[in-house]
Amino acid sequence: MSEPSLYGAAAAAMAADAICAHAGSVTPVAGIILGSGLGGLAQRIENAVAIPFAQVPGFPTATVVGHAGKLIVGALAGRPVVALAGRFHMYEGHDARLAGFPVRVLHALGARTLFVSNAAGGIRRTFRAGDLMLIRDHLNLMFRNPLIGTLEPGDVRFPDMSGPYDPQLAEALRQHASSLGIALQEGVYGGLLGPAYETPAEVRMLDMLGADAVGMSTVPEVIVARAIGMRVAGISCITNMACGISMHPLSHAEVLETTTRVASQFEQLVETFVAAL
Ligand code: HPA
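^ thats the input. predicted complex w/ hypoxanthine below
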């Protein structure tokens, strides 16, 4: 028998066992990944059991400011969820397989719906810092793929990517946003490796390629989710206008400042979404 591969299905099953040993057995209606500065949602989770990433087999410790690095098991709007406050970025030196690994763990815990969120720079001129953007599609400009390597049991080798973000879940998010009085933008998320922010020339290129927002995460997670048959919904928090569109230098502090400003809208939207799942 061949060795089980790193960050594959067997490793995810082991991580899920360790999580259940801490938190009891759970069948989440959704797995939620909270982007930079958006971890405040964790406070709305009731009966929460928080497990530091360091205690999850296969997880390295999160290193980015604004990312708590915790997995939280509990109830949101009365529904069982598992949330990750923090994620693994390729700019930290991680392999694409590790960037997608938490999704395998959420799936091993029983989640069949994945909600992803991130901080992103706005490219479309009509966007403003503080907007929430429904992710309609993405561009994988990381030029890495988390599925490269041995085919994992349960994976589709060549997953269809014609609808990576589930249209029905997207429609639900539109309706929830509208009933909450939250203006929801929509667009294509361009995923780059980072960690340097883009140059103005790169932002012009991304604009021509069809990206409405740009960030450094999410894409590997969504690819893994589609390969294992999970439905995906996603929201970007437009924390700043991208370089060259905004004329002032960009900083991670600004990104976190904006997420703090819109955290409550974001949290209400996710909570309402989960309540209706
Ligand atoms: N570019 C890339 N990633 C980001 C940005 C940006 O402008 N803002 C927040 N994350």
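The helical segments are 9-23, 96-108, 167-180, 200-209, 219-227, 252-275.
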